[in-house]
Design brief:
145 residues, alpha+beta, four-stranded mixed beta sheet, 12% strand
Length: 145
Amino acid sequence: MAAPGTVVRHLTVLYDADCPLCVHIRHWLLGQRWLVPLRLIPAASAEARRRFPKLDHPSTLREITVVGDSGQVWTGTDAFIVCLWALSEHRPRANWLATPAGRPFARAAMYTASAWRQAVRTEGGAGSEAESEGPACDDHCPVPR
């Protein structure tokens, strides 16, 4: 997934802490066996802005973004694939999803997740109570058992 010759020592996943699906996936990622360590940080948070000052932080709230320790940035479908690539059980699937045969399936998964997120985000409407409460989860949320 990384550029040839580039060693990836860890990945930072920026997730939307106000999205129930994103928070669920965060918990799922924390429960997996990693081949590459993951850091999960709320997108557009003070921590994300401090670590990655050159990133377009509003865009990280619109689509999943993964940042490698050497400055690599993956978004959308590529970010989804690289997250799977970091996981012991899912690396073979990630390698297949990165091929021309597998990529349409990865895009379909991202399209479905994006449509679901949009439906959930617009359910409450602008200025809803959920928006004013702050993030549903941050980096200190426990992993469900």
